[in-house]
Amino acid sequence: MSVGSERPGSRFSALARLYPRAFREYWGEEFTGAIRGCRDAPDLVREAVRLWAHPALWPADDAAQRRNRARTAGLALAVVSGWVMALLTEFDGVRSPAALLVLVVAAALLTPWRDLNRLVRRLIRPALAAATIVVLANGTSLDRHDQPAAALVVVAWWATLAWAGVTVVQGLGAPGARAPAGRLTGGLVAVAVGGAALAADALVHHRDGPGLAGGVAFAVLTVIALTTLTDLRLLPVR
Amino acid sequence: VPVNDAQTLVLCALAEGPLHGYAINAAIEELTGERLGPGSLYGALTRLEAKDWIEPLDEHGRQRPFRLTAAGRTELTAQLRSMARVATVGLRSLGAEPA
């Protein structure tokens, strides 16, 4: 196709990739075909951000799928909060055991325990990778004064933890898993409470550098947990 | 239940009958003089469908028409009455004629 015959908004239809997959698959070409050009970019970005904060409202087959999405989102928020907390503890000395305990309770409430076998199978590869890194870090083959190699091991360790977290959420967010209303609400409340406590602690006691960034991240995660809770109240039961 | 402007406009556009996305935006343009951006339009449709205030009909090509549900009609009526009350009081306070 020549440049002259190209539809005006087609170059900007790539912005549709900012949207959740469920949204893109549901609306398809009707959505991308409505993009007129660069003037739509701010609207597209703003609405994509809003949609990511409302996973329970994404297109779904039924209410059970929406609840399952909300549960997966809550679990993802708990895992990400724990991961950020671990990073801050490692690099900025931030510690908040009470908030971490609340996040653990949240994860326990949001975990579909019947699917644990599937989760364990999925975790085999990240666990092997983590074990390899531990052996490398403690083994004699790694020179402790070799800065680039040591940095590589640290990055690999945190990347492996992130991989394990994504694996947990993907495994437990699979379609078909039921999300009982009481545990779902309790879990999301716990995520919001834990996230708010971590945000307050990081923003009050660690106002610069990683502490500030972590505080903002916790605040954003808390807002998503709260909006998901609100959305669940608005949704019809069917 | 609060409804933001884009959702209210979409509900208003659908009040006269089923429409697909492009036609909804054309109706909104006729009503307000401006079209919604594609993010706002399809985001609003997504939210309204999640709340069961609108429902899809059979697709025509790549277009998916929607219509108001009974719950959506009730919600829109409540919203418009609330807005009309605010407009009436505001215009009266300003000493202006009703629109």
Walk me through the structure.
The complex is a heterodimer of chains A (238) and B (99). Chain A has helices spanning 21-32, 41-52, 63-92, 97-110, 116-122, 124-138, 147-172, 181-205, 210-234. Chain A is mostly helical. Chain A is globular and about 55 Å long. Residues 1-6 of chain A have low confidence and may be disordered. Chain B is built from 4 helices and 2 strands. Chain B has a two-stranded antiparallel ribbon with strand order 1-2. Chain B is elongated, with a radius of gyration of 15 Å. The interface between A and B is medium-sized, with 33 and 23 residues.
Q: Helix count of chain B?
A: 4
Oligomer: heterodimer
Q: What is the ordering of alpha helices and beta strands of chain B?
A: HHHEEH
Helix content estimate of chain A: 55-70%
SS-based class of chain A? mainly alpha
Order of helices and strands of chain A: HHHHHHHHH
Instruction: State the helicity of chain B in percent bands.
Output: 55-70%
Strand content of chain A: under 5%
Q: Give the biggest sheet of chain B.
A: 2 strands, antiparallel
Major beta sheet, strand line-up of chain B: 1-2
What fraction of residues of chain B sit in β-strands? 5-15%
State the separation between the terminal residues of chain A, measured CA to CA.
46 Å
Report the span from N to C terminus of chain B: 26 Å
- The number of strands of chain B is 2
Report the C-alpha radius of gyration of chain B, rounded.
15 Å
